[in-house]
Known about the structure:
This protein is mainly beta. The protein has 1 helix and 5 strands; from the N terminus they run E-E-E-E-E-H. About 15% of the residues lie in helices and about 35% in strands.
Amino acid sequence: xxxxxxxxxxxxxxIKLEHNDDGxxxxxxxQVVMRGSLFIDGREAGCWESRxxxxxxxxxxxxxxxxxxxxxxxxxxxxxxxx
Length: 83
């Protein structure tokens, strides 16, 4: 039987979705409701947005593409594990 010491806990990150001024939204982009800065472990790491279709998305600078989730909580949980 193997003990838990052979399976270290996954690194969990502290995620903060900071809301930016709504006046900064591009009116030519009707899909975005809110947008802001993404902080991982206290460092600015990218951006996030809430879309009119109900999805939430984040772009992490060191990763390609967007991470998309069905809610703010789901996005945060995914970033905690995968960022």
